[in-house]
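Pair request: fold both.
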Amino acid sequence: LEVRGSQQPLNRQGSPMKVEIGDATLYLGDCLEILPMLPKVDAVITDPPYEIRNKFGESDLYGTRRMEFHFDETGVTDKVVIPAMRLSLTLAQSFHCFCDPEQYAGLAATARALGFTPKPFAKIKACPPPPMPGNWWPSGFELAMYGYKSGAYFGDLSAKRVNLLTADSYRHGIRVAEKADHPTQKWLPMMTYLVSTIVPVGGASIDPFMGSGTTGVACMNLGRKFIGIEIEPKYFDIACERIDNAQRQERLFA
């Protein structure tokens, strides 16, 4: 796999860089420019920037814990996340989107205006962070939203299914070999469950905020098609490598 990160997001013709790896089509560039060019898919599964406003400090007991990332700059929700979801949802029948509580209302209104039924979802943290001095209740969950149109595929037929999913992190050596160099990487078993639930076998999913490519890895492992978009070359390279490795594994077992 050729490494792409040293290049600019545009090729010589001025269009976004495109890499095809088996059933995955990956774009390095701005999702707001790329999404209008893409075909219909079954679902959108994504983890956009949260525009986190609460900052965390230091503790003698727990050291430094910060939730400050360069991609969470002020205004990213209105300038990028909501417009990107609006474009993405015109292509799909269902979606699952992690979000900050302050983004929820805007995402719900966007989805509802496009004919979706939006509902809340929560990832329960199996290993929540310890309380920092001066902090009240540290978060033991992560908010998300899912939505669907009539007739959308849904593959979880368990009579006990609910809108809560307990998922671990890559701390404490749990599946630590899968950890990539990305600060907000999602847990692969969780993303595998989401893909298997709302993307039919042979179907396709879009992630306009691909990051380290975990949604794409889950799609490759399950035999689904994937379209991913990432604006940062460093993370694009990581996603390409991980998705390529997943494709190789799939072909090996096939």
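--- second member of the pair ---
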Amino acid sequence: LKKLKNVGLDRITFGMEHGNEKFRREVVKRNYSNKTAIELMKIPADLDIIFTVNNIIGFPEETRELAFDTININREFKSDNATCSILIPFAGTEIRQLAESHGLIDPDYICTVSNSSEEGILDMPQWGKKEVAKLRNTFPMYVKFPKDRWPEIKKAEDDSELFSKLSTEFVSTFWSKADE
């Protein structure tokens, strides 16, 4: 990253597959420790490189509680932004096979990038797609706002007026600083 910074790179994006090591290893098939991820994510901040962490929620077998492991690891990073998408289980991937084996998706269903609309594709019995979408919408707030604001953010998941108020505060507090 130092070499990249020297040639003018000042923005970078990383993917955080999941914040729970066991889930990440067994379901997402990525084997690295949270300690390693946190140490690596310190590098761009130390080099004053603007960086975003892209996250995915809505994996087969995932619960809201497991998704909060991803939120919590993001809180360890000094990223400029944290985005969140809902899983799209593309054909030919192991995660698609897992979703099919759990009966969460019809094997004939074709996923496209345009499937990333308001709701996800998988409607899991332990965590419905509407609930996944609510957390996706508020994910950056949970990452950036202090934990004592979490009850308010939880209410905003179902209250559009409160969500709008918090979104405005979020943008003015965090995006404005990143633009400077």
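Observation on the second member. The first helix runs from residue 2 to 6.
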